[in-house]
Amino acid sequence: MSGDAPTIAFVLPTKDRPDEIRTMLRSLEAQDARPAQVIVVDSSAEPSASLPGEFPSLPIEFVRFEGKPSAAAQRNEGASRVSPTLDLICFFDDDQVLLDGALGAMLRFWSEASPDVAGAGFNLVNEIDTRPALVKRSRLAEWLGLYSRTPGAVAPSGWQALPGVVEHDLDVEWLTTGAVVWRREVLDHIRFDEFFDGYSYLEDLDFSYSVSREHRLVLVAAAHVHHFPSKRGRMVWRRFGQIEVRNRLYFVRKHGLSVVRCFLGLGVRFLLSLGLGVVKPSSGGLSRAWGNVTGLFRFAGAGPVA
Asked: CATH 3.90.550.10 occupies which residues in the chain?
């Protein structure tokens, strides 16, 4: 691909976020480069089928997703519809926006990317890491293999370190699927694991970590995006507490990481949620902590990939 102008398709899964998807598309429409294909995979109760007519300058293909709503399944559906003649596939969440020049910067990166690069993430410049630094960034936690202080790394426990805002291109072990570009042929060999259903928590970690075992992943500093988390489509805290236990254990067992360290990490996660709930009852921490407990009872004894 070196030296050529790569072609790109955008795959946009969405559910019940009509305002957010339109804001995202406006940011795409305003870019200094244009995609060759835009596929909106909508599982909304009231789908936004009028989008192609609202954005005539974008080559939008609207897909009404009839299966069980899931970010993983909707991304797979969108990827299956990308033209085989295109070089790249971008997965982009409906509650994020491209800043000026972001797509052009990303395509310039790919025009010079070495063949061993399989995926490249946009730089999420308004993302603030609110994780408790005393615990997750401590030398003790790293020594125990619970967390890593290296941006974009995955610890033996299965916990991923957020890369943060980068000033220079950064090689990482995982990429968030909310704003990332893949070589199209990657999707010919690997699909998103639809075990991560519904909210699909950790489906991005699972997919990108799988790719990083054989290829390079890079976070592109010059390709800026903003994330404006939507309040729509979020789980209640108790249910999320269960799902984070289920999905984390599944990921660790699937990739042969340390189940013992994962349980230790889940214990830390429970204590953090419990502490937050005691200090700030309105935070949902107590419900999340209770979900962690019930999740451990339900999923602790599950098999390697169950």
From this structure: 8-127+162-227
Neighbours of 207 (CB within 10 A): 26
Kindly compute the dihedral angle of the four CA atoms of residues 50, 56, 59, 65, in this order, to the nearest 10 degrees.
0
Question: How many other C-beta atoms can be found within 10 angstroms of the C-beta atom of residue 156?
Answer: 17
User: What gap in Å lies between CA 53 and CA 34, rounded to an integer?
Assistant: 17
Q: What does the alpha-carbon distance between residue 243 and residue 291 come to, in Å, rounded to a whole number?
A: 8
Q: Provide the token pair at 245.
A: 């236990």
For 29-53, what is the mean pLDDT? 96
What Cα–Cα distance (Å) separates residue 2 from each residue in 10, 53, 109, 117, 181? 21, 35, 9, 12, 16
Architecture of domain 8-127+162-227: Alpha-Beta Complex (3.90)
Calpha distance 83→72 (Å, rounded): 20
Written in H, E and C, the secondary structure of 171-196 is EECCCCCCEEEEECCHHHHCCCCCCC
Per residue in 128-146, pLDDT (tens digit) is 665 555 566 677 778 778 8
Centre a 10 Å sphere on the Cβ of residue 209 and count the other Cβ atoms it contains: 22
What radius of gyration, in Å, describes the C-alpha atoms of the chain?
Answer: 19
